[in-house]
Design goal:
6-stranded parallel sheet, 12 helices
Length: 335
């Protein structure tokens, strides 16, 4: 597989080198790992620990393919670890906080939560911690995770990811970029655009759009590209918006390159055929898998990972060169 350019500052421990024993190069250990992997692939538990219940509560809206990939990883780890996995979501912060409260009331054994709008989530997370429920934050909220009492945060540093985009735009000779924000109040999205501005030698303009309506997104983007023909790069902050940006580019008759955060099958295809320039992959499958696995390790063995710092799953810059290597994984819903 082609090598990827990566800005990750902390090495991710993969599948944690099998959860039940230390890594070994012996043939017996490899055989044990192979049997465990085969059982996990069939949805069977490979551990003998109690059937704990873990709840994941995210800020996802309906139909967001990114969170389908996160769930895929979480469910795979849950099957392996004998976990009863509960998933719920709401893109309204107050409702998301209420879902956390409901999980606390159910006395779940662990909570995984996103902090896209941390101020609204602080009290709910504090209630979980006070109840003795271990919490791991994932995807968004790395700056607040430790303060709120979470064991660790799993995801990418959004500012670093934005800086990686700015550097890639520089390498491509771009001069004027549009950073498209589709979710008002999402601190992670603002940090991405901040990072682009910090490292990009050209100019960056932010465009706020109504992300709940793709026709509105397309219309707003098309109007902007028609009004400003100097824009030579459009950066969307989620994979589903990349295709809409391509349609807006065509409608406006623009020559701007379309780049995006996050990866899915359609983005991989767009990279492969040159419709898209590059994508920033934060490995959502790994975020879900690691979050469940780390909660299981904490319940089983009081283990933590990261040493008080976030466990980074990205960013990786993916271009046409690597798209073919990832296409198989995007089609099966794991990248």
């Amino acid at each position: 597989m082609a090598r990827f350019r990566t800005w990750t500052g902390i090495a991710v421990a993969g599948a944690l080198c099998a959860s039940l024993a230390a890594c070994s190069s012996t043939g017996g250990k490899r055989a044990e790992d192979a049997r465990a992997a085969a059982a996990a692939a069939q949805g069977k538990s490979v551990v003998s620990t109690p059937r704990w219940t873990f709840a994941m509560i995210t800020h996802s809206g309906d139909g967001d393919t990114f969170w389908d990939i996160v769930q895929s990883g979480a469910k795979e780890a849950a099957a392996k670890d004998n976990i009863n996995f509960l998933y719920s979501h709401d893109d309204e912060a107050q409702q998301q906080a209420q879902l956390v409260d409901a999980a606390v009331d159910k006395k779940v054994d662990g909570i995984i939560v996103t902090l896209a709008k941390p101020d609204a989530m602080k009290a709910a997370v504090a209630r979980a911690v006070a109840a003795g429920i271990p919490v791991i934050t994932v995807n968004s909220g790395s700056a607040q995770s430790k303060e709120f009492g979470a064991l660790t945060h799993i995801g990418q540093d959004e500012t670093i990811a934005g800086q990686a985009v700015g550097e890639e735009l520089n390498a491509r000779g771009k001069k004027r970029a549009l950073c498209v924000l589709h979710e008002q109040g999402n601190v992670g999205h603002e940090q991405r655009c901040d990072g682009v501005e910090e490292s990009f030698d050209g100019t960056v303009e932010r465009l706020h759009v109504n992300g709940t309506s793709m026709p509105d997104v397309q219309s707003a983007l098309e109007a902007k590209l028609q009004a400003d023909d100097l824009v030579d790069a459009v950066v969307t902050l989620g994979a589903p918006y990349a295709d809409t940006a391509v349609k807006a580019k065509r409608g406006a008759g623009s020559d701007a390159e379309i780049d995006t955060f996050d990866l899915n099958a359609k983005v991989a295809a767009g990279l492969k055929d040159g419709t898209l320039g590059f994508a920033v992959d934060q490995q959502p499958y790994l975020q879900g898998y690691q979050a469940v696995d780390l909660l299981w390790l904490y319940r089983y063995n009081a283990d933590t990972l990261g040493g008080g710092r976030p466990v980074l799953t990205g960013p990786q810059i993916v271009t046409e060169e690597q798209a073919a290597a990832l296409e198989e994984y995007t089609k099966r819903g794991t990248r």
